[in-house]
Amino acid sequence: MTVLDLPTKKAEAWRWSDMDALRASAESPQAPAGIDPADLFLDIEGPRLCFVDGVFEPAHSRPGPVEVTRQIAATDHPLGSLAIGEGWALHLGPEHAATCIQIVHLGTGGENHVPARILLADDAVATVVETFAGTGWANRLTAIALGKGARLMRSVRLVQTGGFVSIRDEAEVGEGASLVSIFLGAGGMGSRIDGALTLTGKGAFAEMGGALLTSGTQRQEAAVAVRHEQVEGSSRQIWRAVAADQSVASLAARVEVARGAQQTDGEQSLRGLLLQRTATVNLKPELEIFADDVKCAHGATVGELDRNALFYLQSRGIEDAQAKALLTHAFVADALARIGEEPVREAFAADAAAWLEAAL
């Protein structure tokens, strides 16, 4: 058991965080998960890795180019710094490609920590799909470095039935490189998705976004900072939150533009949907700009389903629950549309649809 020295709500960056739920998940006893890891992999060909309670499970794995190796966390992040030990690493040389890599994390209670490292050399290409299932506290640190022209697509599903998932991404995006990370929180767990992305090369692109779906007394949160350090960089933070019952979803998105990062194009779109007025959505967009030739925009809105749209659908014979589901699914669809591979995008849409069916 790790001695937990957790952040408190006194710190601005953590004022919406549910550290009590994290601590309770870390201290919960081990119990059979009752889930076959094989059922958690999507039906696509490619390398596969399975971690059960943070331990590599070779019986359900075929790593291919992915290495299983011990790592030491090189971060001062209060949760990410705990991710020390056995993890996974993907190192691709120039112009190499590795697609449809699947990483499954299954928890049965208690706490587990897994570090990861993705290093792509110039013009290398990789796509990674991660799935979190089961229960307990799953804590992850992913360090990413992209060389000139490299491209990385990450899709992350949070479908744990309980517990807590904390994710810390730290990335450096080189000249002309592209990083796209899309998250879907559609389980019953609490969560904090935490990102620090730095665009270190000319013309670099970074996107981090997705959808958080909460119900009951659940709390989910995303806090992402993108820093532009070179000219002609672009970034997108497109997040959607849907909250039902007494749940809370919180989104904080920050863009920093350094003095020399002229011709930066940064966009933030934070939107929340309340299925009941007892739910809460917190939004916090931030811009810090020191260059004078930039195009940066942010938008933040929270509302309910459009009554006119509901009436229109109902007048066409669509039942109330189905009409709400159609409008809500459309609300989150644009946050998931950037997922590049169609089978992965369809799986994420199915997860969202299953959550909506239960919530509505």
Overall description:
The two termini are 38 Å apart. β1 (48-52) and β2 form a beta hairpin. This protein has helices spanning 19-27, 307-315, 320-336, 342-359; strands spanning 48-52, 55-56, 66-71, 85-92, 97-120, 125-146, 151-158, 164-173, 178-185, 190-199, 205-214, 219-228, 234-243, 248-257, 264-274, 280-289, 294-303. The model has no long low-confidence stretch (mean pLDDT 94). It has a 17-stranded mixed beta sheet that branches. With 360 residues, the chain is mainly beta. The longest helix has 18 residues, at 342-359.
Describe the structure concisely for a colleague:
The chain is mainly β. The chain has four helices and 17 strands.
SSE inventory with pairings:
Elements lengths: L18 H9 L20 E5 L2 E2 L9 E6 L13 E8 L4 E24 L4 E22 L4 E8 L5 E10 L4 E8 L4 E10 L5 E10 L4 E10 L5 E10 L4 E10 L6 E11 L5 E10 L4 E10 L3 H9 L4 H17 L5 H18 L1
Parallel strand pairs: 1-5, 4-5, 5-6, 6-7, 6-8, 7-9, 8-10, 9-11, 10-12, 11-13, 12-14, 13-15, 14-16, 15-17
Antiparallel strand pairs: 1-2, 3-4
